[in-house]
Amino acid sequence: MTISRQSLCIVYAIIALIALIGTWGNVIEYFKGGFISGTLLFWEETMINPASRFITVDVLFLGLAATVWALLEANRLKIRGAWIYILGGVLIAASVAAPLFMIHRERALINNDSTGKAGTLRLVDLIGLVSLAALFFGYTYKSLTL
Fold it and tell me: Out of 1, 44, 103, 131, which residue is the most buried by the measure of CB atoms under 10 Å away?
């Protein structure tokens, strides 16, 4: 199945929106006592148990790898403002900023390629993506209803 760049932008936008709801729906409690104290408490609580430490280290290094890739892509495609997405990842949520950067990237690629095709996915890829999305959406929903 061929995926258009415009369709891919819509998928990335949906991911960013759900990620924003899921992350900030969980973090907003920290800021009731103030931004600085809330931020310090948030980072302190990422060290609370092995699972939280695992996921924090995992996401931090995934973020570092994504930052290297984003800067290289931004320079290759002459995308300005890449550091805005990186700072957005640190200050808002990497899961929000990364899809927004990918939208910007797809729009730059549309300008370079008149076909508008992002690529193809096999049926097994689609099944895998839908399965992961369902799992991630389910976890996000549960996290917001605890």
Answer: 103
Rounded to two decimals, what is the model's pTM? 0.92
Please give the structure tokens belonging to residue 92.
Answer: 């808002």
Q: How far apart are CA 131 and CA 137, in angstroms?
A: 10
DSSP 115: T
DSSP class of 91:
I
Give the CA diameter of the chain. 51
User: Tens digit of pLDDT for each residue in 100-136?
Assistant: 999 999 999 998 887 889 999 999 999 999 999 999 9
Q: Which residues contact 92 (CB under 8 A, 6 or more apart)?
A: 20, 23, 24
**CB 30, CB 39: distance < 8 Å:** yes
**100 within 8 A of 88, measured Cβ to Cβ:** yes
Q: How far apart are CA 74 and CA 86, in angstroms?
A: 12
